[in-house]
Amino acid sequence: MKIQSNAFGLLFSLLLLTTACEKDDICLEGTLGTPRLQYGFFDVENPENPKGVSNLTIKAISIDSIIPNSYQNLLPLQTDQPYTIFEFTLNAGSDQASSTLVQLNYNRWDEYLNRACGYRAHFIFDDQSFAQKNPETSWIKGFEIIQDTISDEETLHLALYH
User: Between the CA of residue 152 and those of 12, 37, 131, 138, what are the distances in Å?
Assistant: First the structure.
């Protein structure tokens, strides 16, 4: 009799767990989170031509972390500040290393996805969104905001010219 009551209790618990779960209790794997900024490097003399950068390292100064090369030209932006500061270092680890500080300023609006996924941020740039420390000596000679709203990672948002 005790085995039957334990089995009934276990069956009842499983039934309760499976019926208590709602659709928005689980964040589906394909749900897009906060998108990252997609950037690309281009030739300053011929802006239509992409131009590679050798031994590039990028450090997010405002969050004190180095962006891994596996990010494939994607930069995470801070969601708790209206700006993010990056240090771009060309020829890192050599005698010809050259660093420049770049501050990206943006407005942000949050989109509520559901209870399980929470919010996702969207970033909006304007003409004053890009600032460099010492632009006259920087290896980055210019920039262009290609897409002013960051809501996905599929399109190029920022072109950097060198």
Answer: 44, 8, 23, 29
For residue 116, give its domain range: 2-161
Q: In Å, what is the CA distance from 104 to each residue of 8, 10, 21?
A: 60, 55, 41
Give the mean pLDDT of 117-137. Answer: 87
pLDDT of residue 150: 92
Pairing between β-strand 149-150 and β-strand 98-105 as defined by DSSP bridges = unpaired
Structure pTM? Answer: 0.76
Q: How many domains does the chain have?
A: 1
Q: What are phi and psi of 83, to 5 degrees?
A: -155, 160
Tell which wins on pLDDT, 25 or 157: 157
Eight-state DSSP code of residue 39: E
